[in-house]
Amino acid sequence: MVSLTPIILDGHAFTATTVRLPKTTLLTVSNEVGYIMCGALDVELLNTLLIDRQIIAGRAVGVKTIDQLLKAPLESVTIEAERLGIHKGMSGEEALLKMV
């Protein structure tokens, strides 16, 4: 099952996406600039093989819900996210607000 839920953070719109798969759930919160995601995100891949795409993204591990993803500290971020002031340890919500 896939669910899309609008989220408003400090007046800015984001889309929360939940994809329920066998034995795991993929979680993302995004806008037109970038996104945060659960541990399934491969930041290393984005920073190496896909570096030319300049993807703005962050990864939080151990989260099982969108609410947890928003509150959890980011475990890793892309090079492009760092350029926006998003860094490891920042909460998902803080990172998203840097993407507006």
Quote the beta fraction: 25-35%
Largest sheet: 6 strands, mixed
Distance from N terminus to C terminus (CA atoms, Å) equals 29 Å
Q: What is the string of helix and strand elements?
A: EEEEHEHEHH
Instruction: Report Rg.
Output: 13 Å
Strand arrangement, largest sheet? 1-2-3-4-5-6
Computed structural class? alpha+beta
- The overall strand count is 6
- Average pLDDT: 97
What is this structure's SSE topology?
Blueprint: E1 2-9, E2 12-21, E3 24-30, E4 35-37, H1 43-47, E5 57-59, H2 66-71, E6 76-77, H3 79-83, H4 92-98
Parallel strand pairs: 4-5
Antiparallel strand pairs: 1-2, 2-3, 3-4, 5-6
Q: What would the keywords be for this entry?
A:
single chain, 100 residues, alpha+beta, 4 helices, 6 strands, globular
Walk me through this protein's architecture:
- The chain has 100 residues and is α+β, with helices and mostly antiparallel strands.
- The chain is 23% helix and 33% strand.
- The protein is built from 4 helices and 6 strands.
- A 6-stranded mixed β-sheet has the order 1-2-3-4-5-6.
- The longest helix is centred in the C-terminal third of the chain and has 7 residues, at 92-98.
